[in-house]
Amino acid sequence: MKKSFLILASLFVSSFALASPISNAKAAEFGLHRVERLVLQKKAEAGFLAHLQGMTIEPLVHQNNTDAAFKVVAYQFAAADNSRRKIEMALSEAGKPITVEVKDGGEPPVGFPVWPSANGLTLCEGAIHYILENVSSNSKLQVYFDKLSQFSISAGKNSQGQDVAVVDVVAGAADPVLKIFVKFDGTLDSVSFVQP
Amino acid sequence: MQSRFLSFIIRTLSVVLILILVGCNAHHDLTYQQRLRRKGLPLKATWAAVFDNIIIEKCLECHSPGGNGAKFPLTSWQEIIDSPLELVLPGNPEDSGLYLAVTRTDEKRMPSKGAPLSSEELHAIYQWIKDGAKAE
């Protein structure tokens, strides 16, 4: 009887107390959604959709679940003077924004990739969704789900030589770079792993 | 005598814990089922009317377990209020993700299937959030 009580008590406590922080990949997804929302609200300029180059995700040491748990920085392609427009965010364990700061920089030059259909942010979103939606069936994605530290987008070609967007996803320094090839409509083309 | 009393206390607490655990797990489904039975409420700026007339009708096909949008569930008031996406910021419809999602004009507008929400439906959502997004 005592044993049953202890098991039930453990279940009761765990159902409330063991809310774990989101993964780095999920923080990246929330970061992208926040950037898009800031543009919709006209609190950030539309270049963050068209000219987004990438994002960094840094887990932060924190005490409480309402403290900043992630520093997320979205950045555009660099201007001629090498400055970049950025959005710096602090997210809680659940992914809620705690602080958001839009930082000015120069206009990206005309050389950045011009996406013919979906914008750069949507293409990046397609790549992050690939990780989130396939991690449960593909163990090779687990390291990117847990430790994604940076991703960046560029124009490239798939193995058939077709034009696609390529999102390079970095986890740890020793982990292979996950290259996610995304069609211009935002759907997945293919993936490959490249040793650093 | 003392051990019988202790045994009685443990049995009682176990039953209470079972009831609480079952109750917690059933909470969302129960709310959802209860709401489904209340379809037909007139469209007003209240949670019940917004949920019954708009969310059940036009959102839950995707934004409920098993749907394409299940990772952003809209099956209960609590889930919407607690969403890390800040779907609803009470008193502030312009910055609420739910209102932004249904009023945007690009290909990501919600609902993704079918026609955009009518002006009456948009007004009900707007005013419900403006009035504090209360649960009743």
What report would you give on this structure?
Chain A is of the alpha+beta class. Chain A has five helices and eight strands, in the order H-H-H-E-E-E-E-H-H-E-E-E-E. Chain A has helices at residues 2-17, 24-40, 47-50, 120-134, 142-147; strands at residues 52-59, 70-76, 86-91, 97-103, 150-157, 163-170, 177-182, 188-194. Chain A is globular, with a radius of gyration of 19 Å. By secondary structure, chain B is an all-alpha fold. In chain B, 53% of the residues lie in helices and 0% in strands. Chain B has five helices and no strands. Chain B has helices at 2-36, 47-58, 77-82, 97-103, 119-130. In chain B, helix 2 packs across helix 5. The model of chain B is unreliable at 21-30 (pLDDT under 50). The chains are: A alpha+beta (196), B mainly alpha (136).
Quickly list its features:
heterodimer; A: 196 residues; alpha+beta; eight-stranded antiparallel β-sheet; 8 strands; B: 136 residues; mainly alpha; 5 helices; 0% strand; elongated
Distance between the termini of chain A: 56 Å
Structural class of chain B: mainly alpha
Unreliable residue runs of chain A: 11-18
Structural class of chain A: alpha+beta
Please state the average pLDDT score of chain B: 82
**β-sheet strand percentage of chain B:** under 5%
Fraction of residues in helix of chain B: 40-55%
For the largest beta-sheet of chain A, the strand count, sense and barrel status come to: 8 strands, antiparallel
Ends apart, CA distance between termini of chain B: 49 Å
The largest sheet of chain B is: none
What form of chain A results from the Cα inertia axes? globular
Principal-axis shape of chain B equals elongated
Order the strands across the largest sheet of chain A as they lie in space: 4-3-2-1-5-6-7-8
Query: How many strands in all of chain B?
Result: 0
- Percent of residues in beta strands of chain A: 25-35%
